[in-house]
Amino acid sequence: GLNSPFARIADVSIDTVDRVIHNRGQVSKKTMKKILDVMDKTNYKPNFVARVLASKKKPRLVCLIPFHTPENMYWEAPLEGIIKAEKEIADYGVTVSYSLFDQYLPGSFEKKTRDVLSDHPDGVLLAPFFSKQASDFVKKLDILKIPYVFIDSKLKEANNLSFFGQNSFRSGMLAAKLMKFSCSPKGTIVIVNIGTEYEDIHHTREREEGFKTYFINNTPDIPLHVLNISSEDINNMDSLLEIPDTDISGIFATSSAHIIAKYLNNKGKGQITLIGYDLTNDNITFLEKGIIDFLICQKPREQAFRGIYALFHHIVFEKQIRKNNLMPLDILTRENFNDYLEFELNN
């Protein structure tokens, strides 16, 4: 039951907690003080606990995130964060289910939103990948009064309970500053967007805009070239990256940097500065080889872990939840990624 961990913290029986909450039966002053102290420290609300005890209701959370693929392993990390949180709150009777979609197919996302709505959960954790479809979905959640938390990116006009993720625009500016310091001042810088046949994958667009803004404001004379590669064109990198009359000095990959790195490695073009995102296994391989120079990371496990806890605290304990929670923008290189990864996996 929901009060069993609480009873364990106070080191008393569940029946004793029940007697204090409902003010019935004999409980010693010492035991009552112990229970009330724990209620105070854990922000328990006796009237709410009583309702939960009476209803035997078990809150159900649903996670609507992309499934990870060999081409993009990023979403394995948030899944690990969710599973960790799920294990920690299981004693409170909270259950977590998964509705995973294809991050390149709006239709896949839309189908999963219908499944979630028909399930009518108590809370939703989601990555709002496709702006239009995600906006339609959260409006329906608003009508049903189902709280929801965004991770990875957010919709600008939404009534989300909370958001855990990076400021995509500022991360693009950070990448541009790294590029300016590390690549040859002579030559073109290419911004590569992969899998962007759908224009409303907005966080990669915000990264691009932040990157361009930095260069326009600071070094407007350096030429920038934007290259949009659809998921079907990934194997045709030769023709795409052979830009006429251009000497490429740096590449900024708004996602899936390992795909560009593999191409550069095969062509012996490792001297081109390459900056990307996220500490996936594929990216680590090329970071170690020196093909990827910098990775900007955003604590994806922690985003998902804290997102689940936000829903849990809101639904079970009726706590006030902070709306915007921006992750630090971590800069990783061949020299420091091992310590970072070890810390991430063990905390």
Automatic annotation (TrEMBL):
GO terms for molecular function: DNA-binding transcription factor activity; transcription cis-regulatory region binding. CDD domains: HTH_LacI, PBP1_sugar_binding. SUPFAM superfamilies: lambda repressor-like DNA-binding domains (SSF47413), Periplasmic binding protein-like I (SSF53822). It holds the Pfam family LacI. PROSITE patterns: HTH_LACI_2. InterPro entries: HTH_LacI, Lambda_DNA-bd_dom_sf, Peripla_BP_I, SBP_2_dom. Keywords: DNA-binding, Transcription, Transcription regulation. Residues 7-55 form the HTH lacI-type domain. Gene3D superfamilies: 3.40.50.2300, lambda repressor-like DNA-binding domains (1.10.260.40). This is HTH lacI-type domain-containing protein.
